[in-house]
Write a structure and sequence with these properties.
Length: 114
Amino acid sequence: QVQLVESGGGLAQAGGSLRLSCAVTHKFFAINDMAWYRQGPGKQRELVACISGGGTTNYMDAAKGRFTISRDNVKNMVYLQMTMMTLEDTGVYYCNGRAVHWDWGPGTQVTVSS
């Protein structure tokens, strides 16, 4: 059974930075494309960034130039470095597979204040 545990969220000021981490329990983690998603208040969950097993990355337009997704295939970890944060980045952040979704983890709350 795949388990996903996100951490690193918290309160950030507009213009500030946070680094999110996701621990993935999966025997074949290294070959799976992974992604970060977020759900803002009153909004649907959306894809923020994804990374292939080989490290190719893609970002939603609002994240380009500000966020960086990375992974450690030895530690089975996925990271999201967020910089130049805005109020619109507020939400619960989740990691999951990009093409295959496992049971969602608890997520980590990110709140950006002005």
